[in-house]
Design goal:
By secondary structure, the protein is an alpha+beta fold. The protein is 27% helix and 27% strand.
Amino acid sequence: MAANLTLDTRETLQSAAIYALNTDIEIMLWCEKEKFPPLELLAQIWFERIEKQFSRFRTDSELTYINTSKGKQTSISDLMLEVLLLAEKYQQMTHGIFNPLILNALESTGYDTSFEKLGNKNRDLVKLPQSEYSMASSSLDQSNHCASSSPGITLTITLDPTAHSLQLPAEAEIDLGGIVKSWAVKRLAQKYKHELKIKRGFVNAGGDLYAWGNSSETGEPWLIGVEDPWQPSQDIGIIALETGSVATSSKLGRQWLTAQGPMHHLIDPRTMRPSISDTVQCTITGPDVIECEIWTKVICILGLNKGLELFAQNTSGYEALLFTKNKETYFYGEKSSLGKLWRDLKAPYFNF
């Protein structure tokens, strides 16, 4: 007589760690234990696909093919078209401060290989890029940028959604690292949440994250630490998130030494050089992880006043925490969020 077997079908919190896109990726899903392996495999396959298409460090990626075909009409995949349409949207929304045509500037400042291979050795620069590839004009205050920069020409991507093709200007190449990571998080989270009906989950790719549902059966929110930029091993506060997104950008994390001093990866398209604004780190919460990621970079590039001014004009339901090079901290958002969404946070309230 066969023994009666009772399967444990209770949902528990399952987690996995993946490395892709030059960053650590964390997946946490509430599901039955035996159902998690294929869900983890789905994430691995997805991020491997994204890296193969969008990495500027792979010679076989679609992005590399596009950049080597600059100046020519080039066919693109559905995923590439989707990301480029988003990039076009945010480029317009941010008055050109978000700009994917910065690859030449990144490489000229020394970021010509994946970050973990840069090391701390000095890198000799042939030259720093000049502003002939910067924006021709801007309504934004440029007083906090290099006085040597001069007005130049505006370079644009010619995108044909119907033909699934683009043409890059002959003078520039694209880097989509500033949008692809958050877009990939959003797409995967949507797959889990809406198609596979995972009621509670969390996808985090190097600080660009989306969470939904709760972190526990008792309804506790997801608790996300906000790194202190001056003491990276410590958190300066906690975000208690139920459903929503968080993204962080910093000038302090991805730095490298060169013969002309330290450099970082947040390129100001008006000068085609690393931003020298007063803001060194920014964390943003809101409904959409892509929008959070875009605005963290824009605020870091523009600085406290101009960055928050543009942010306030173009968003609703988003909040920001900024850190300046003078080691000041500022919060912009609803006062009622302090102590509820943003916990253990000591920062002055900033408003216009």
